[in-house]
Structure formats: structure tokens, C-alpha cells
Write a structure and sequence with these properties.
Oligomer: heterodimer
Distance between the termini of chain B: 36 Å
Low-confidence stretches of chain A: none
Largest sheet of chain A: 6 strands, mixed
Number of strands of chain B: 11
Order of helices and strands of chain B: EEEEEEEEEEE
Structural class of chain A: mainly beta
Low-confidence stretches of chain B: none
Helix content of chain B: under 10%
Strand content of chain B: over 45%
Number of helices of chain B: 0
Mean pLDDT of chain A: 93
Largest sheet of chain B: 7 strands, mixed
Strand content of chain A: over 45%
Radius of gyration of chain B: 13 Å
Largest interface: A-B, 21 and 20 residues
Number of strands of chain A: 11
Radius of gyration of chain A: 13 Å
């Protein structure tokens, strides 16, 4: 089955800095890579996703890049704001296998 | 907006009890899932279902079973609850656009 590794487990940045979270996956057949944001006490919510036929996708301050050859994908958040503080999960494949999550803390 | 509703937000059960966690979605999605979420372990798939009366084991099915008698409802059953099943349980459904919609979760404590 699929195995997804996510790093770092915690990330602390100053407001306005960029944040990058990286994931690797094992199954070369995986073709769908979503990212979820989970605020404290709330359900995970899809924030961006990418399919294997695309190398990069951007939505305002967030972007995801995919390197299928190396089997890794990354979430990039620019101009971070305190409300970006949350746990972020990456996943791979249509029946997603999730990474263990990254706790992002944005200090005002 | 897809709504995925879990019947209980918090549950406290005794060891050995049979526990039912209910999940209902309102968008005619065929695929439904149960995860448990534990600190440092992320989201782990327990069971999923592609269609009515159909079920597949996920990564950690031991101690759990499921029921899908109607398309909109997917139930997770703990046959004999144990303390190591204390966790947050999340239900999700998935549509044609692939993205999951999660329920708000049930925090189960087994004492």
C-alpha cells in the first residue's frame, strides 16, 4: 500500500514569512495529492489539491508542487498570517493515505 | 455544500460495551470512510465503503466493523470497546471531484 511521510512535524514562523511543508510517497501509481488544514477542534478541510498531470498549482497565498519522478510534493504558504496556524495534512491517492501532520504556528 | 453529519460529538462508554458511531451524508456520494485521529499518528483509515452493503478494510480494522445499509449512512461499530479505542473518530465522504468532506468528529472515551 501507499506510505506517506510528512516533514516537519512542527513549524514555527513569524507573520509574513513563508512556510513549506514536504511530503514523500511510495506508490508511483498515486495520481491525486490533496492537502488538508485542521484548525483546533475542527474537522480537516481541503485547501488545495493537485493531480499527477500537473507540476504546480497555486491559489492565492498557497501553492502545491509535485515531482512525480522523485515522488514528493510540497505545500507552500507565502505571507503567513496568524490565522494560518493549524495542523496541515498531506495525502496521496484517491483513497488517501495521510501524512502524520504538521503543526504550523505563525507568531504575530 | 456537502454535509457529513456525525451523530455524536462526545461519547463516553465502558469497556466491553458495544458502540455505534453513525455518519450520514446528504450528497449521494458512493464512497464513505471512517478514520481515527490520534496525536502524532495523523489520520488512519479503519474501513471504507464504495457502495451499499459493500465494505473494505483499511489500515487498522481490528476491533471494528461497519455497516452500510443505505447509501447515505455509514456506521462504525466497536463490538467490545476497549480503552485503546479512545480516540477521535472522523467520517468522510468523497465525490467525483475527489476531495474529502469530513464530519465534525466524535471524541470517544472508553473507561
Amino acid at each position: 500500500g501507499e506510505n506517506v511521510e510528512q516533514h516537519p512535524s512542527t513549524l514555527s514562523v513569524q507573520e509574513g514569512d513563508s512556510a513549506v511543508i514536504k511530503c514523500t510517497y511510495s506508490d508511483s501509481a498515486s495520481n491525486y495529492f490533496p492537502w488538508y488544514k485542521q484548525e483546533l477542534g475542527k474537522r480537516p478541510q481541503l485547501i488545495i489539491d493537485i493531480r499527477s498531470n500537473v507540476g504546480e498549482k497555486k491559489d492565492q497565498r498557497i501553492a502545491v508542487t509535485l515531482n512525480k519522478t522523485a515522488k514528493h510534493f510540497s505545500l507552500h504558504i507565502t505571507e503567513t498570517q496568524p490565522e494560518d496556524s493549524a495542523v496541515y495534512f498531506c495525502a496521496a491517492s484517491r483513497i488517501p493515505t495521510f501524512g502524520r501532520g504538521t503543526s504550523l504556528i505563525v507568531h504575530p | 455544500d456537502v454535509k457529513v453529519t456525525q451523530s455524536s460529538r462526545y461519547l463516553v462508554k465502558r469497556t466491553g460495551e458495544k458502540v455505534f458511531l453513525e455518519c450520514v451524508q446528504d450528497m449521494d456520494h458512493e464512497n464513505m470512510f471512517w478514520y481515527r485521529q490520534d496525536p502524532g499518528l495523523g489520520l488512519r483509515l479503519i474501513y471504507f465503503s464504495y457502495d451499499v452493503k459493500m465494505k473494505e478494510k483499511g489500515d487498522i480494522p481490528e476491533g471494528y466493523s461497519v455497516s452500510r445499509e443505505k447509501k447515505e449512512r455509514f456506521s462504525l461499530i466497536l463490538e467490545s470497546a476497549s480503552t485503546n479505542q479512545t480516540s477521535m473518530y472522523l467520517c468522510a465522504s468523497i465525490g467525483l471531484n475527489y476531495g474529502y468532506t469530513f464530519g465534525s468528529g466524535t471524541r470517544l472515551t472508553v473507561v
